[in-house]
């Protein structure tokens, strides 16, 4: 990818919907994803293979994947916490999955019911099997700029997990500001520290917007050299195991921000607004995207 393009990873149908009070039927989730593809998004999270007891909103992710099928040039990814999740993802035809760890012990326990070290150990056989089947694996690190339970998280703790996921074979590591507490200076310092251990092309930014800092943090990461960002249509999202955290930075905001400085995203903003209107109506709530709201008023 050239330095004047940015790859957006659309997480609305997973990170977005996992935190909504309403559990949407498979058909609506599929229709959302298809609208996002029509808008030009090419990497999209489509679900999570986790026990419905933990995240009921992601139940039936296998059916979502089967409905979507394969589409040339489009990657549907899903979250898998363990081998059982990977096996379900493979059966549903997934060609890319993501494992998820945290930089904070307290969050790791709450979110995936084990320590950081245990989680990394658990990912080893997941990685081995996925790579053997030619399935790409992305890695997430949560709480990179703060933990909902313990506050500040040392940069060194993040770097350690990033290095391990990369060494294990994750082609890309998404740095998650799960609670959106970060500020641009801290984001820049973090990216620089991670980029001294793994290639910067293997890093992605995943900023939640709880404090309204997500766009500023994206810009800081961009200036530090990051060219992959996670975002969610309409600013949907949060993490059920991160109390109080709101949605990801809205995809509409990122397209506006990036195209506004000459960086191609491949996304058609008008079509994206339609996808946003569709999911807002399905959830019965207004958009959290200020760009979407401004353009609709214009
Ligand atoms: P556990 O309860 O410790 O699991 O959960 P277990 O291994 O003891 O198994 C308990 C039961 O679950 C067993 O069934 C297993 O078969 C079943 P039983 O014998 O009782 O009938 N089970 C499964 N079922 C379906 N799919 C599976 C699976 N695994 C076990 N994959 C576990 C441990 C990791 C499974 C659980 O804690 C979990 O799934 N946590 C995930 C929570 C989650 O999805 N959080 C949100 C995503 S992370 C996020 O949003 C952050 C991110 O956006 C980045 C950021 O913003 O920071 C990525
Ligand atoms: Mg998230």
TrEMBL record:
One of its GO terms (biological process) is L-leucine catabolic process. Gene3D superfamilies: Aldolase class I. Residues 6-273 form the Pyruvate carboxyltransferase domain. PROSITE patterns: PYR_CT. GO terms for molecular function: hydroxymethylglutaryl-CoA lyase activity; metal ion binding. It holds the Pfam family HMGL-like. InterPro entries: Aldolase_TIM, HMGL, PYR_CT. Coiled coil: none annotated. Keywords: Lyase, Metal-binding. The keyword Isomerase does not apply. Its EC number is 4.1.3.4. Pathway: Metabolic intermediate metabolism; (S)-3-hydroxy-3-methylglutaryl-CoA degradation; acetoacetate from (S)-3-hydroxy-3-methylglutaryl-CoA: step 1/1. Belongs to the HMG-CoA lyase family. NCBIfam families: PRK05692.1 (NF004283). This is hydroxymethylglutaryl-CoA lyase.
């Amino acid at each position: 990818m050239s330095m004047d393009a940015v790859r957006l990873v659309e997480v609305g149908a997973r990170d977005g919907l996992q935190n909504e009070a309403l559990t949407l039927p498979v058909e609506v989730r599929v229709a959302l994803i298809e609208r996002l593809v029509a808008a030009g998004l090419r990497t999209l999270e489509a679900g999570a293979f986790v026990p419905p007891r933990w995240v009921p909103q992601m139940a039936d992710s296998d059916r979502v994947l089967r409905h979507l099928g394969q589409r040339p040039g489009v990657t549907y990814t899903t979250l898998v916490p363990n081998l059982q999740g990977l096996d379900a993802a493979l059966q549903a035809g997934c060609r890319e999955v993501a494992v998820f760890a945290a930089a904070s012990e307290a969050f790791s326990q709450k979110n995936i019911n084990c320590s950081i070290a245990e989680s990394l150990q658990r990912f080893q056989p997941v990685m081995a099997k996925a790579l053997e089947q030619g399935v790409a694996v992305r890695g997430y690190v949560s709480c990179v700029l703060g933990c909902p339970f313990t506050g500040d998280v040392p940069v060194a703790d993040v770097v350690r997990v990033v290095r391990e996921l990369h060494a294990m074979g994750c082609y890309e590591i998404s740095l998650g500001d799960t609670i959106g507490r970060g500020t641009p200076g801290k984001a820049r310092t973090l990216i620089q520290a991670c980029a001294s251990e793994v290639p910067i092309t293997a890093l992605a930014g995943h900023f939640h917007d709880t404090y309204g800092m997500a766009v500023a943090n994206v810009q800081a990461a961009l200036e530090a050299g990051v060219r992959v960002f996670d975002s969610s249509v309409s600013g949907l999202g949060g993490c059920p195991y991160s109390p109080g955290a709101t949605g990801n930075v809205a995809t509409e905001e990122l397209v506006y921000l990036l195209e506004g400085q000459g960086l191609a995203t491949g996304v058609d903003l008008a079509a994206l607004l339609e996808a946003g209107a569709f999911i807002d109506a399905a959830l019965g709530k207004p958009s959290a995207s200020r760009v979407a709201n401004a353009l609709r008023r214009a």
